[in-house]
Write a structure and sequence with these properties.
The protein is of the alpha+beta class and 460 residues long. It has 16 helices and eleven strands.
């Protein structure tokens, strides 16, 4: 999410940055571009196209979002969505492997891809004059990919090594994976996007072809073009390229297993010699922008900002500045998800302070909001900070494309983006207090502890 260090393409852990940016961008809406010029249309084969003109720079971002991610994988095939992201850069019936990358480099552009729980996206940033070339390559590999057993072995080795480096060799990532599998009892989000090692090792050519034939069709994709472009020109190019790709079978609704009621407090502890500073995080299952009642997700977004969104937040001011016991604290809400999501608080001690003191301090601030709420001053400042930061982020066509692409890939529409600033501005202090009361009770939370390999009682 590029966004993450990996061998050939970006993927899930790196997706976090893009998801956080996307969730934030969703709140900025019309301030980011001349949104009265945003155009949304559907090709005859079912592919939706959104064009966001922004003529401040002579560049264009071209993104194809497929409505499939790791949470859509068949049971026992974890990692196939990310694996197939890699395979999409192999040969097609019309182009040898590597030709697409060379074409992007030849025009001075950049390209990459990322996989998340709910979508997979492929993107290029080029001069507008190269837009038709990008469309032709993407439209070609949408249906003309040629895979061999050699391709499978090569890329499977790559993703296995990626998992070793990004998760297995990183104690924090190992703990995150275990916490994830504990927070979620039934939801596919409990499995990391990269997949379980033992299942990744078994992915084969038949798995790849089945995944390709089920999901990689124009009627399961969204095209986003942002930057120095004109809508009618983009429409003509899209019809000339993507419009020639046949429509695929209609996919059933994306209905995942329902999560049972969360009614226990769970903890996960990892002790590792590579850890020098202990830390903790506590997570709660909460609604996402896609599943929340009106105003709830926006309230959770602002709650995260007020509680732990930066050095002006309550957690930072109380535990880092005032008490001096924490080296880091924070909170975040990962709202851009198809199903319910998580709200997280975290912290690590400073100097001789104990992790238990930091955790107690964080929990006290969460409880204080549930009891006392937040002030109108805090709320307005959070809204102002949020909108202002996103306006600056909107200077990048890549962020614009991420904003619209993720919204549509998660089942929303352009109007949802355009109306989002009003929704964030309409959040009340009472809604934030109600969100804290309803969702952030310790009796249904999951906490992960990352500890050095020493006597625990001296650290906790």
């Amino acid at each position: 999410m590029e966004q993450r260090t990996k061998f050939t393409r970006t993927s899930e852990v790196g997706t976090l940055r893009a998801l956080l940016v996307t969730a934030a961008l969703t709140l900025a809406g019309p301030a980011l571009a001349a949104d009265d010029q945003v155009r949304d249309f559907v090709l005859d084969n079912g592919m939706e196209v959104v064009v966001i003109p922004d003529h401040r720079e002579p560049i264009a971002t071209h993104m194809v979002w497929y409505k499939v991610g790791s949470a859509d994988e068949p049971r026992g095939k974890s990692g196939i969505a990310h694996f197939f992201e890699h395979l999409m850069f192999k040969a097609t019936a019309n182009h040898p492997a590597g030709e697409f990358d060379r074409a992007v480099s030849a025009v001075g552009g950049s390209n990459n891809a990322f996989t998340s729980y709910d979508f997979t996206a492929f993107h290029e940033t080029v001069a507008p004059s190269a837009l038709e070339l990008m469309m032709s390559f993407e439209a070609d590999r949408m249906r003309n990919l040629i895979l061999t057993d050699k391709d499978i072995k090569t890329e499977r080795d790559v993703i296995l090594e990626e998992r070793r480096m990004s998760i297995d060799d990183n104690p924090g990532a190992v703990l995150d994976e275990e916490v994830n599998a504990t927070v979620w009892q039934n939801q596919p989000y409990r499995i990391q996007v990269l997949g379980w090692m033992q299942e990744m090792e078994q992915l084969n050519l038949a798995d790849a072809r089945a995944f390709y034939d089920k999901y990689y069709w124009p009627n399961n994709a969204v095209l986003i073009v942002a930057g120095d472009v004109e809508p009618e020109n983009v429409r003509a190019l899209a019809e000339k390229t993507y419009g020639k790709v046949a429509r695929g079978p209609d996919l059933p609704p994306r209905v995942r297993p329902v999560e049972p009621e969360q009614n226990t407090r769970r903890t996960v502890t990892l002790t590792d010699a590579r850890v020098s500073v202990p830390g903790f995080s506590t997570q709660w299952v909460v609604p996402s922008y896609h599943t929340a009642k009106p105003g709830e997700a926006e309230a959770l977004e602002l709650l995260a900002d007020i509680l732990g969104g930066g050095d002006r937040s309550r957690l930072y001011q109380e535990l880092v500045v005032k008490q001096g016991i924490a080296s880091s604290v924070g909170a975040y809400f990962q709202g851009a998800m198809l199903d319910d999501t998580t709200f997280t608080v975290y912290g690590a001690p400073r100097g001789d302070a104990k992790l238990s003191d930091v955790e107690a301090g964080v929990n006290a601030e969460v409880a204080r909001i549930a009891i006392e709420g937040v002030s109108e001053y805090e709320l307005q400042k959070a809204k102002d900070r949020y909108i202002a930061s996103i306006i600056f982020a909107g200077d990048d066509p890549n962020d614009l494309a991420n904003m619209y692409g993720s919204m549509l890939a998660l089942g929303g529409n352009v109007q949802d983006v355009l109306e989002s600033p009003d929704r964030i501005r309409n959040v009340t202090a009472d809604q934030i207090k109600a969100a804290a009361v309803r969702y952030l009770g310790l009796d249904h939370s999951t906490t992960g502890y990352l500890l050095p390999q020493q006597k625990r009682e001296g650290l906790i």
